[in-house]
């Protein structure tokens, strides 16, 4: 039999490749975006408690009511927006599922979807599976700001959707109020849908305002806003996220969601609901928590040969290695992992057409001891 792949250009992701290489060479893994420190004890205790209570069967398809109500209250606290827990909020098996379902809900064969490179690697495969085309707009170092006039010129009669991500993985760029307003204007002017990937929403640094598609009512009415409890509560392996969209979009979203995962990890939903109710300060303090790690790691690397780029949010830090090597970034990351025992991610893999740059991404969502050990190795290069 001959298999005709629907994703012929897709192979094993660079994240898996580098993590496997790091494990094989016992390197410190600063490549994949996951913490190496434990979650809050209350969260883990609640997970065990609800599991022992027998809450281990299917949750309601949209998510348990308690969690959706806590999500609605979280949005009110953070953005002063009222959403309906019943009609607007859907719990998903991670943000990646929410992104896939949101894209599938509105994109048809022949449509175009605008994405910004460097872009999270799940966007384009989901677009391609719909028979649509991803239109890539490349952002430039060091600031990776969006040129909204360029975006306007890229919109055609076939453009259906625009996907934005702020705070931005992998660059750490954060949208300003002017960015959000420019996005809203284009979405309304051209009758587009928007997916706002906000999984790092609570990781904004240096006193900047925590802004969101939630803050602009007209934009929010045409948007799927995707968030992640895995990122917020340091439990990426629980694969628990959510999508907020107006009722009509949510209804279509749930049609697909029910056939993708139907429902998500039940005891974790109860545990996260309890966490949001009893420890709201953990969400509020997340930006300061990761800013301290950013500043610490950057300080440790100040005497290295790496040139660090600005980081306004997320838990990723970009570094230019031009002073160290002429290797391309994939080769450099392989060399860094095998020869110097620190794993990072090459930036080129986030682009359709990579620029001629020597930049890699470090994840600083790690214990202080891990960052200290990694920095010592990096400063020896």
UniProtKB/TrEMBL annotation:
It holds the Pfam family Aminotran_1_2. The keyword Ion transport does not apply. It comes from Rheinheimera aquimaris. InterPro entries: Aminotransferase_I/II_large, Kynurenine-oxoglutarate_AT, PyrdxlP-dep_Trfase, PyrdxlP-dep_Trfase_major, PyrdxlP-dep_Trfase_small. Keywords: Aminotransferase, Pyridoxal phosphate, Transferase. Its cofactor is pyridoxal 5'-phosphate. Gene3D superfamilies: Aspartate Aminotransferase, domain 1, Type I PLP-dependent aspartate aminotransferase-like (Major domain). The lineage of its organism: Bacteria, Pseudomonadati, Pseudomonadota, Gammaproteobacteria, Chromatiales. Residues 27-376 form the Aminotransferase class I/classII large domain. The keyword Signal does not apply. CDD domains: AAT_like. This is Methionine-oxo-acid transaminase.
């Amino acid at each position: 039999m001959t298999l005709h792949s629907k994703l012929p250009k897709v192979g094993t992701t660079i994240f898996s490749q580098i993590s496997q290489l790091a494990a094989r060479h016992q390197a410190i893994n600063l490549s994949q975006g996951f913490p190496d420190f434990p979650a809050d004890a209350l969260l883990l205790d609640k997970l065990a408690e609800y599991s022992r209570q027998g809450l281990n069967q299917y949750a309601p398809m949209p998510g348990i009511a308690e969690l959706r109500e806590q999500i609605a209250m979280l949005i009110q606290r953070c953005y002063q927006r009222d959403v309906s827990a019943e009609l607007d909020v859907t719990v998903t098996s991670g943000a990646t599922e929410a992104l896939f379902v949101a894209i599938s809900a509105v994109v048809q064969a022949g449509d175009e979807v605008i994405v910004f490179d460097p872009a999270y690697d799940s966007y384009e495969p989901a677009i391609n599976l719909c028979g649509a085309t991803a239109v890539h707009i490349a952002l430039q170092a060091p600031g990776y700001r969006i040129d909204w006039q360029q975006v306007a010129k890229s919109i055609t009669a076939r453009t259906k959707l625009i996907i934005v991500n702020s705070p931005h993985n992998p660059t750490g760029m954060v949208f300003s109020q002017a960015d959000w307003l420019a996005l809203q204007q284009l979405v309304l002017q051209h009758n587009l849908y928007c997916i706002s990937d906000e999984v790092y929403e609570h990781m904004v640094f240096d006193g900047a305002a925590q802004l969101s598609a939630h803050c602009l009512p007209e934009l929010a009415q045409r948007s799927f806003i995707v968030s992640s409890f895995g990122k917020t509560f340091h439990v990426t392996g629980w694969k628990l996220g959510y999508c907020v969209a107006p009722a009509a979009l949510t209804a279509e979203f749930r049609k697909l969601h029910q056939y993708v995962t139907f429902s998500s990890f039940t005891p974790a939903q109860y545990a996260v609901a309890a966490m949001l109710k009893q420890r709201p300060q953990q969400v509020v303090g997340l930006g300061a928590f990761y800013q301290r790690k950013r500043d610490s790691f950057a300080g440790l690397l100040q005497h290295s040969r790496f040139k660090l780029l600005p980081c306004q949010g997320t838990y990723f830090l970009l570094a230019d290695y031009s002073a160290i090597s002429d290797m391309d970034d994939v080769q450099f990351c392989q060399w860094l992992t095998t020869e110097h025992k620190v794993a990072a991610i090459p930036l080129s893999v986030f682009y359709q057409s990579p620029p001629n740059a020597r930049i890699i991404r470090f994840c600083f969502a790690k214990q202080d001891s891990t960052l200290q050990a990694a920095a010592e190795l990096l400063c020896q290069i």
